Amino acid sequence: DTAVSQTPKYLVTQMGNDKSIKCEQNLGHDTMYWYKQDSKKFLKIMFSYNNKELIINETVPNRFSPKSPDKAHLNLHINSLELGDSAVYFCASSQRLAESYNEQFFGPGTRLTVL
Amino acid sequence: AQKVTQAQTEISVVEKEDVTLDCVYETRDTTYYLFWYKQPPSGELVFLIRRNSFDEQNEISGRYSWNFQKSTSSFNFTITASQVVDSAVYFCALSRYTGNQFYFGTGTSLTVIP
Q1: Most Cβ neighbours (<10 Å): which of A114, B65, B66, B86?
Q2: How far is A63 from chain B (nearest CA, A)?
Q3: B53 contacts in A (CB within 8 Å)?
C-alpha cells in the first residue's frame, strides 16, 4: 500500500499553461505539506495544511494555490507556468501538527518541466 | 531563526570506508527535533532517524550511527563500512517544538565507489 501518493509522476508542459498535481495519503495523518526541490536539491516548504486548514504559506507566487478537499488530500494548482517553476514537487504528511517530533512521510515526487 | 547547514556538498568514498556526514543547526528554541532523511537516485525521501533536543544519547542502527552534541549544535551521521547502496543525497532537518515545520539543510551527496 502506498502511504503518500502523487500524480502525475512526470509533467511536461508549455509556459503559460495551468496544471495541477494531486496528493493523497492513507496514513490517517492530520497534516500535509508541499515542498519544492530545485535543481540543486534544495528542499523548501511551500504550504502546510492541518485538517484542511492552511497553516504555513511561505513566500511563493500567488500563481500557486493549494486545495485540501479533505484531510487525506492536498492538491497543488499552478497557473501561468513559468520556466522557473521547473522542479520536483514533493507532497508529505505527518501526524498531529502540535506534535513536532513526528517525522514527515514523503510522496515519490512530481517532476515538473516547463518548456 | 532556524537554520541547518550541511557544509559538505559532495563526498566520494570507496566501498567499505567509513564516512561521516556533518550537520550543524541554529535555533534559539530549547525544545526542538532533528531528523535525517535519505534521497536515493530513485528520488523518494526516506526517513532515517529522529532525535529530540533533550536526548543526547548517540544512536546506532546497523551500519548507521548518529552523534548529537548540543554543545556544538551538531547532529552528525556516520556510515560504517559503506556500500554502493548508500549512494544518495542525505538531508538533515530541524523541526521546532510546535508547528512541525521542517527546516532542511542543503543536503550532502554521497557517492560510494565500488
Answers
A1: B66
A2: 22
A3: none
